[in-house]
Amino acid sequence: MISRSVEKEYEVMVDAYEKAGGDRTSLVSKDIAKLVIHQNRVLSAQEVDGIKIETKETESGVNIDFVVEKGVKIARPVHLCFGILPQEGLQEIILKLNAQDDSEVNVIAHCIFPNAVKIIHKMDADIVIGNNARFEYRETHYHGEFGGIEVIPKAKINVGKGGVWLSTFTLSQGLVGKLDYDFEVFCQEKAVAELVVKAFGKNEDDIKILEKIHLDGEGARGLAKSRLVLSDKAKAEVRGETYGNAPHSRGHVDCIELVNGKKAHAVAIPIVSVTDDRAKVTHEAAIGSIDRRQVETLMARGLGESEAVDVIVSGILR
Amino acid sequence: MLRVENLYLSVNGRSIINDLSLHVEEAEIHGILGENGTGKTTVAYCIMGVNNYRPSKGRIIFQDEDISQLSVSERAKRGISLAWQEPARIEGLRVRDYLTLSGNHSGSQHIEDCLRMVGMEPAQYLDRDVDNTLSGGERKRIELASILAMKPKLAILDEPDSGIDIVSLPIILDGITELNRQGSSILLITHSEPMAQMAHRVSLLCAGTILRTGEPQETCQWFKENCQSCRHINEPLEESRGL
Asked: Could you tell me if A223 and A194 are in contact, meaning their C-beta atoms sit under 8 angstroms apart?
């Protein structure tokens, strides 16, 4: 029996989710796996065949055990919704995720902090992707206009033989506040990992990104990609690290930071390392103002200059 | 429709456009033919109003209005557009969105037709990005499709055949003809005589000035006989001027 207060809190959370661009029906539908957490309260946890979700509320957040069972291919995306609706609070998510061998799932996470003035949102994830399993994870943040938030997502991901890990972290709505993103992936034989981060820093936002990929198995492949736009006094430091440690492993670090403000500051630190002479790891980093040719190309179709810049910024963060 | 009067432009102290005058009629395909480095692309940039190409002297008159001081977008809103020789790649911008930017198109069917006119299957391209995943030839064809979608009064096409494979070339020529048939005047910039042959008139460019304007066949013949073997590229002989 769900208490009335939890039911009401859930409704408020679903409303916020919808306002942030989420699809309400995905949180209401009975045949979609989902997990809705407000601060340290689990408002809804729904499993489907092949997915087990266990949660434990703690003083500061929630511990989650998430298992995708062996050989199960989940047709519809799993929806996660985390957030804090009041102005202040702490949310610590401790996630243990195990996508067992040959499983396949697509997870969409929305993290909602529309009123943040003094909020800390932390996630510590320990993730195992089994042999030939495929896990796609897209996390999108919706922050308010106050910037009083610290977001600290950290994950260690082990991808088994032939497994695939694809993740995209997007923070482009509202002020970032402080972001300290740290994902590290270890790829076994023929495993694939893609880490993508997209963020739009404004005002005094402070962004730190660390994407680290270890290509430890023969034929493993990895991409560490970041796309940042910085305006006003925002600053960002992006470290993309890829280590080719096995024969025929291939890795690439790809960083673009657009600086659209005189006091914005962008730093990119790519590290590529090879310890096997049959491995190949490359990098490209571009930091600078918005390309004039791109702007004029769009202006030649009738867009004003600021509209053209908006199109370019939206594109890079899409 | 377009009158360029006594235009001068220097870049870093070097004269690029030198007393250039040009007249494009309504519904005309007007070719500008010249060797590499004669200032063809600079003429396109001056007419479009590209930022670093502001003439020091002269006027650009479009439909009886002096547009010399207008921005690129203000010129575009008046009906001028440019298909770039090397179009920019824009990450995250879908082909369908690029083709509808101007707002001049008449629905999704029209957008698909524009892609077909340049030999591209809409289902394969509409949801792709206008980025570096496209080949040079594909990007050029999308550039022409976006001009077809925009239906400008004056389209400046800068080397529309460069980077296009020989099989696709007739499709591009058909696209340009169709654009003109729909009512656009075209300033066709090229160094290729066969391309210039499709124009109604051709102006020959050397050293940032027009040496002569005339029928395509006659002008191309003159270009062949004089310019291609000329050792004075960008230093036209006095006797060549005004012919």
From this structure: yes
**For an interface test with B, which of A200, A226, A293, A299 has the most B Cβ atoms less than 10 Å from its Cβ?**
A299
In residues, how long is chain B? 243
The interface pTM score, or ipTM, of the predicted complex is: 0.92
Residue B131 lies in domain: 2-240
Q: What are the beta bridge partners of residue B99?
A: none
Number of domains in chain A: 1
Nearest CA-CA partner of A228 in A308, A299, A170: A170
Three-state secondary-structure class, residue A15: helix
Contact of A70 with A130, CB cutoff 8 Å: yes
* Short-list B190, B189, B151, B199, CA closest to B47: B189
Q: Residue A302: what residue type?
A: G
Say if residues B21 and B7 touch (Cβ distance below 8 Å).
yes
For A:224-253, CB contacts with B below 8 A are 227
**Which residue has 């910039």 as its token pair?**
B189
> What is the Cα–Cα distance from A80 to B111, expressed in whole angstroms?
38
If one counts the domains in chain B, the total is 1
Domain with residue B202: its CATH number is 3.40.50.300
Instruction: Give A106-144 pLDDT, tens digit per residue.
Output: 999 999 999 999 999 999 999 999 999 999 999 999 998
So what's the pLDDT on residue B243? 45
Closest Cα of chain A to B238: distance in Å? 37
- Nearest CA of chain B to the CA of A300: how many Å? 5
Contact B73 A292 (CB under 8 A): no
Cβ–Cβ < 8 Å for A317, A227:
yes
Provide the 3-class DSSP secondary structure of residue A154: strand
